[in-house]
Amino acid sequence: MKIDVRNISKSFGYFPALNQVNVTVPSGELVALLGPSGSGKTTLLRVIAGLETPEYGNVLFGDTDVTEHPVRSRNVGFVFQHYALFQHMTVSQNIAFGLRVRKTSKTAAAERVNSLISLMQLDGLGNRLPSELSGGQRQRVALARALAPEPKVLLLDEPFGALDARVRQDLRRWLRHLHDEIHVTTVFVTHDQEEAFEVADQVVILNKGAVEQSGSPDDIFDHPANSFVMDFVGNVNVLTGHMDGYGSYFHNLVLPDKSPSIGTVPAKVYIRRQDISFAASKDKTPFIEGVITYARRVGLVVHAVFQLSNSTTSIEVELPFDEWQSLGIQVGASVVAFIKRAQVFPVLEQAS
Amino acid sequence: MTTLPSTTARTIRTASIGGASEPFWLRATLIAISLGFIFIVLLLPLYVVFQTAFRDGVRTYWNALTDTDTASAIQVTLLAVAIAVPLNMIFGFAAAWSITRFEFRGKRFIVSLIDVPFAVSPVISGMIFILMFGADSVLGAWLSTYGIKVVFALPGIVIATTFVTFPFVARELIPVMQTQSAEQELAALTLGASPWRMFQLVTLPNIKWGLFYGTTLCAARAVGEFGAVSVVSGHIRGETNTLPLHVEVVYNEYHFSAAFAVATLLVAVALITLGAKSVAEWMETNKTLEQKKWAMEEVQ
């Protein structure tokens, strides 16, 4: 079931949580709403579910306008951040709840519950209470409960937020795998870009109640629409340069990025840490010269700081330990750096 | 044993932090004071009640309880309780629900308003109802044209009892419902439950012990209420006397033994309440502990 969010606005008192938001979730896809806290991502999810009423705009499931439909008739599966399991009910009773209130026959309900218990790898836990489960198990019970009435769409609010790093990793892949099996249109909210990029088919980036960019993870990573997205996605160096109608310039470099602009304007140059490499000789162009002022190995990579010669500007660099070792560079050494990729955005008057 | 295992050593040390940091004589004095106080204020009166009630023998005791005026007082009391308690369960739940589940202007004001019956002296509230519903008042005069008598009659007793016992259920439910987030209720709605099913299957099981305790307190107070009821009832023997009023009437007629015999009924109500309170608190603590355990695991 396709979800169409059209022109949704919602405010809490004087705080505009969502401002004319448009999002389309194609049928059967897994979409992440990604943004910093306060960006309105959870509010948007709750608007889709019907837990919040928008002031303007419409929500469509397929061709049906559900804006006026109450939560209970929207047939959505919603997984709350802290699961909101019914504490006085066993795992089986929790999962069966949606079927019970729909007056599904007992035998059909039991069958569905059993199949979900095995799908969610909860075998043998059917008679436990939520308080007797681990965090990851509770998460899967919440998912099973949401899926039991065969919802048209599945909505997850920070599904892995309350879990520790290790469990989170496992559940992420498992969710992706599960989605490939059951193909229900799914929207999940996260503030973790790695999580969004690893799990989702499409990522919608929200900031201050508005959509900054939406697209496939590759698209967003390779072609960030603006400086916010660039900054939010990945560890970047933000440097000052300028641009004119012919190209962008930073230090003594002409950058590969050729965003057109009128006249000469100051610009922000965004370079990811991984998009810089070093060499002992100047055999590639363009290059910049400088000194390594800091270096530290962190597992398989090296974090280094590179200071430009004749400048106070420093650039943070991350490169594989093998490469670092084969170059044989030490802290204090003069090196040549190459910039593989950079994004340049003109600095707007009010932003400077 | 020459060396203590480390765990035992730690247990001993914690125990010493918990209790033995003050000198023995101080602890002994404090415990003696509290025990003495409990004995004089609580246990001794209880003993006196039963001792006096049975002073003239079991037969007098039994006669006092089966007296027609006593029977009437029991009837009036039970009727007042039977009306006031359900009303306050509904009021209390509605108040707790709106306060913990909705955001609106003047919420703090309402929270303070709930406590008014606790703050106002019961005698004063009784007098307020006399002024409102008495024969001299507009409302009272209007009602009497329809033959409805409020003051010095059962309706007045019910209104006064309801007013005085209003805060108990709400006061008990508000903190319970505050800790129980609305999320479980919302989850029930997303799963397709109607509001009534949500209440029945999710809300009620979560608040049942709080509601039970609040209701018990409310009922105990409704049975025992003296001040406000005393003002509005008019002390018509065999008609508008409740149990506490009846005790006073009998006592003032120097039938001490009979008065205390009726009083044992009130004591029984108090003891039952105490028992119910312990059960409810025990169940509540068990649940809270479980939730705490749950929350702890989530953090780990």
List low-pLDDT spans of chain A: none
Distance between the termini of chain A: 44 Å
Spatial shape of chain B = globular
Task: Please count the helical segments of chain B.
Answer: 15
Query: Major β-sheet of chain B, in short?
Result: none
* End-to-end Cα distance of chain B: 38 Å
- Please state the CA-atom Rg of chain A, rounded to the nearest Å: 25 Å
This entry's quaternary arrangement is: heterodimer
Topology order of chain B in helix (H) and strand (E) letters = HHHHHHHHHHHHHHH
Tally of helical runs of chain A: 10
Structural class of chain B: mainly alpha
Silhouette of chain A: elongated
- Strand proportion of chain A, as a percent range, falls in 25-35%
Computed CA radius of gyration of chain B, to the nearest angstrom = 25 Å
- State which percent range the strand residues of chain B make up: under 5%
Mean pLDDT of chain B comes to 84
How would you describe this protein?
The complex is a heterodimer of chains A (352) and B (300). Chain A is an alpha+beta fold and 352 residues long. Chain A is 27% helix and 35% strand. Chain A has a six-stranded mixed β-sheet, sandwiched between helices. Chain A has a five-stranded antiparallel β-sheet with strand order 13-12-11-14-20. A five-stranded antiparallel β-sheet of chain A has the order 15-19-16-17-18. In chain A, a hairpin with a 2-residue loop joins strand 1 and strand 2. In chain A, helix 3 crosses helix 4 and helix 3 packs parallel to helix 5. The longest helix of chain A has 18 residues. Chain A is elongated, with a radius of gyration of 25 Å. With 300 residues, chain B is mainly alpha-helical. The chains are: A alpha+beta (352), B mainly alpha (300). Chains A and B meet through helix 2, strand 6, helix 3 and helix 5 of A and helix 11, helix 12 and helix 15 of B.
State the main characteristics.
heterodimer, A: 352 residues, alpha+beta, 6-stranded mixed beta sheet, 5-stranded antiparallel beta sheet, 10 helices, elongated, B: 300 residues, mainly alpha, 0% strand, globular, disordered N terminus
